[in-house]
Amino acid sequence: MNTEYKNMAGRLIVALDYPDATQASALVEQLQGIPCYMKVGMQLFYAAGPDFMRNLKARGYSVFLDLKMHDIPNTVKGGAESITRLGVDMFNVHAAGGTQMMQAAYEGMNNALASDPSLSKPIIIAVTQLTSTTQSVLNEQIGVEGNIEDAVVRYANLAASAGLDGVVASAHEVPSIGKACGRDFITVTPGIRPAGSHLGDQARVLTPGEAIEQGSHYIVVGRPITSASNPREAAEQIIKEMMNVE
Ligand SMILES: O=c1ccn([C@@H]2O[C@H](COP(=O)(O)O)[C@@H](O)[C@H]2O)c(=O)[nH]1
């Protein structure tokens, strides 16, 4: 396996959005040997829980636990402590919870790290505006005025000032986030659709190659892989497209 392939595959986060461990494990089997990140979201975590996370870690995967915590600071602190104890590599909170809540996540993580030196520090990121949110939904339903990109950058600045490592945003907003928070501030971008694939409920979308071109550190891909007739081929095609970016 050459280094460029390994590096690019490590920037692909596969969303295991399945109702149970059996179906998720079947996909993991099909992708065996591809050194991608695996993402466990609410659907799978609520069904298969910590055991499934440990199983992924035992198989050698980097794991992103995508539970998007948004609660009072004390509760998020406790949640972050428990999540860190699972040994995950990345987890997230909603930036809309505010600075104190994001700092509480950091504190919870530090409590876990202090109590168990075998744990490594996970990346903590904040969700800015969901990639399914359109400009009109933001203004007319959520009640946030102004441009969606400005709202995303505002949240990114808030996350950076709270000491978090990065944000979840659409790849469209990555250059502006980089300008505001620095290029090392991690951008994790869902809303990725290979050319010609169904958008589904995603609104702010780019292709894998376009997202890498924009400077995304990680891209998140679910259905274009999980619903493909050959998921392994779909994942390999995405990595190839990522590698072809100059
Ligand atoms: O703004 C966000 C935050 C998280 N997600 C998650 O990413 C995947 C995307 O799945 P697709 O099937 O490729 O649409 C999914 O798990 C979401 O919960 C997001 O899409 N947007």
UniProtKB/TrEMBL annotation:
Pfam family membership, one: OMPdecase
Residues making up the signal peptide according to the UniProt record: none
Annotated metabolic or biological route of this protein: Pyrimidine metabolism; UMP biosynthesis via de novo pathway; UMP from orotate: step 2/2
Active site: D66, K68, D71
Orotidine 5'-phosphate decarboxylase domain location: 11-238
Alphabetized GO MF terms: orotidine-5'-phosphate decarboxylase activity
Keywords: Decarboxylase, Lyase, Pyrimidine biosynthesis
NCBIfam families: PRK00230.1, pyrF
Subunit composition and interactions: Homodimer.
Record family assignment: Belongs to the OMP decarboxylase family. Type 1 subfamily.
Alphabetized PANTHER family for the sequence: OROTIDINE 5'-PHOSPHATE DECARBOXYLASE
UniProt function note: Catalyzes the decarboxylation of orotidine 5'-monophosphate (OMP) to uridine 5'-monophosphate (UMP).
Protein name: Orotidine 5'-phosphate decarboxylase
Highest classification ranks of the organism: Bacteria, Bacillati, Bacillota, Bacilli, Bacillales
Annotated gene: pyrF
